[in-house]
């Protein structure tokens, strides 16, 4: 079962891919992260190193454990370097074409027919990614939450083609090896958490868009009035407004419900490159240092 999984691949080293790689390396696993090119691979390494550093400064991790984790990580710009991996977690941008391309390529590259190919997608059908391969039974959703080293939840998403063995293997891996709490979801846009969360975030964006309240007022309202640790617009900034828009589009495509339709303000902000924390400005501004 999952105890035999020692060699992990992560495709995409952005916010989520870097986080997944970090928790795998911290769990003692040999982890290779593939980015689009060598420059992006170096940026992914810097992201993981900065996060490990933060964990040490906050007293959550020993300095030696952080150093050990870094030695278990390799960063590359070449997908072929994942050939011997037993579990690959895809965490590239939330775009169906980009993800389908990655799965088709992984299918050709990954040597072990028993390897598991997992996607961290927030909303796209796992089944379609499986169908881009010749091993849809080994393709599953493994949906982590941001920031991955901090948030304990993982959704395991089974498509109509995912085998019971694949689902059990990744569930056991996430729970026992990574120490996460797992909930299962069927392969429906948004799974459990985003199907509930995204309409709420979109409502907050519509409220700001209409001038009904300020971004700060909306966030303070939910933080102090409902004891949420973070208001909806800060949370949208943390997720990334491009990702929020993509998830909303997937939900809207699937259900055709107006509550899932991305508001014009969100689309304008994405077009303007105001993506939230990762670009330094979204509904709020951030120090990127
Ligand atoms: N941001 C969140 O809060 C969150 C939470 C859970 C799941 N997700 C999902 O995780 C995935 C990644 O989101 P993110 O927030 O990390 O995005 P991001 O924009 O921070 O990172 C995406 C990374 O993928 C890389 N990439 C793009 N195409 C690639 C390819 N072909 N090969 C290798 N790397 C490639 C990009 O260079 C970039 O670094 C998305 O599917 C998103 O829906 C995001």
Q: Describe it for me?
A:
This protein has 11 helices and 8 strands. By secondary structure, it is an alpha/beta fold. The protein has an 8-stranded mixed β-sheet with strand order 3-2-1-4-5-6-7-8, sandwiched between helices. Helix 1 (about 15-25) packs across helix 2, helix 7 (about 195-210) crosses helix 9 and helix 7 (about 195-210) packs across helix 10. It is globular. Nicotinamide-adenine-dinucleotide binds near residues 35 and 240.
Number of strands: 8
User: How would you sum up the major sheet?
Assistant: 8 strands, mixed
Question: H/E order of the elements?
Answer: EHEHHEEHEHEEHEHHHHH
Bound compounds, each kind once, are: nicotinamide-adenine-dinucleotide
Distance between the termini: 42 Å
Radius of gyration: 19 Å
Helix/strand-derived class? alpha/beta
Q: Report low-confidence residues grouped into runs of 5 or more.
A: none
Characteristic key phrases:
globular; 289 residues; 14% strand; 11 helices; 8 strands; alpha/beta; binds nicotinamide-adenine-dinucleotide; eight-stranded mixed beta sheet; 47% helix
How do the helices and strands line up, and which of them pair or pack?
Elements: E1 7-11, H1 15-26, E2 30-34, H2 38-57, H3 63-71, E3 73-76, E4 87-90, H4 96-109, E5 116-119, H5 126-131, E6 139-144, E7 153-158, H6 164-177, E8 181-186, H7 193-210, H8 215-226, H9 232-239, H10 241-255, H11 264-271
Parallel strand pairs: 1-2, 1-4, 2-3, 4-5, 5-6, 7-8
Antiparallel strand pairs: 6-7
Helix pairs in contact: 1-2, 7-9, 7-10
Bound molecules: nicotinamide-adenine-dinucleotide.
